[in-house]
Amino acid sequence: MNTDAFQNIEQKYIFVVQQKEMILDWLEYCYLRDPAYHFGTISSIYYDTPTLSLYDEKLNSDYLKSKVRLRWYENLQESDQAFDVKCYLEIKRKYGTVRQKERMEVVLSSKKLVIDPFSDEEILSLPARVYELGYFPTGILVPMLLIQYNRYRFVDAQSGSRIALDTEICCTHVNATYVPGLPPVYLGAGVLEIKGKHRQLLSSLHPIHVHLTK
C-alpha cells in the first residue's frame, strides 16, 4: 500500500463562470504553470453515510470536516474497451483552515467507473479500507455523487503556494437511492484554491479580489 499524507492551509474562493478567462489570464501572468500537471480533468466519487453526515459537516461549517472520495485523473468515456485506471482512495480532513489528507492507490477497470459506479461491488467495498488510513467513520459509507471538473494548476514562485483553478464543475452521476436529481448538473461557478502557509489571500491576487468570494 502506498500512502501520501500532508497538511497545510487551504483557502477556497468561488467566482461566477463568466469570469473564468479573466481570472485564468491573471494567473498565467502572475504565476508559473505547474511543470508536471498544468491542466487535466479530475473525477471523484464522494462517499457519505445514508444520512449525509459528512455533507452536513460542510453545510454547518463544522470546525472538523471530513471527505471520503475515490479520485482519478483520466477523462473516461464509455467504450467497448476496458482498461486499468489508477485511482486514489482519499481521506481529507480539515481543522478550520488546516487540511490533512491521506490516500492509497487502487486500480480499477474503466468500465466500473463509467457504467454504474454506485452498484459495483468493488467500489461499494472500498470504504472498508479507510481504517488503513487512520479514519474511523461513525457509520456505513456508500458512494453518493460523481463530480468532474477541469483543473489548471500554478505555483507561486515567491511563497511556494500552489494555486488551482477549477472550472466546468459538473455532477455527472448520482446515487438515486439517496440523492434526488437528474444529472448532469453544472455548477454556475468556478473555484480558486490556494494551498500553502498563508491564511489570507495572496497579495498578488488582490487586483482580482472583487471577483472572488471566500
Radius of gyration: 18 Å
The percentage of residues in β strands lies in 35-45%
The neighbouring-strand order within the major sheet is 1-6-5-4-3-7-8-10
Number of strands: 10
Distance between the termini: 36 Å
Unreliable spans are 1-5
Q: What's the mean pLDDT score? A: 91
What global shape is seen? globular
Order of helices and strands: EHEEHEEEHHEEEE
How many strands, which pairing sense, and closed or not: the largest β-sheet? 8 strands, antiparallel, barrel
User: What portion of residues is helical?
Assistant: 10-25%
Number of helices: 4
Structure keywords:
single chain; disordered N terminus
What does this structure look like?
- With 214 residues, the protein is mainly beta.
- The protein is 13% helix and 43% strand.
- It has an eight-stranded antiparallel beta barrel.
- The longest helix has 11 residues.
- The N terminus is likely disordered.
Summarize the structure.
Helices cover 13% and strands 43% of the residues. It has 214 residues and is mainly beta.
What is the topology?
Elements: E1 6-16, H1 20-30, E2 32-33, E3 39-48, H2 53-59, E4 64-72, E5 84-95, E6 98-109, H3 110-114, H4 121-125, E7 142-155, E8 162-174, E9 185-186, E10 189-196
Antiparallel strand pairs: 1-6, 1-10, 2-7, 3-4, 3-7, 4-5, 5-6, 7-8, 8-9, 8-10
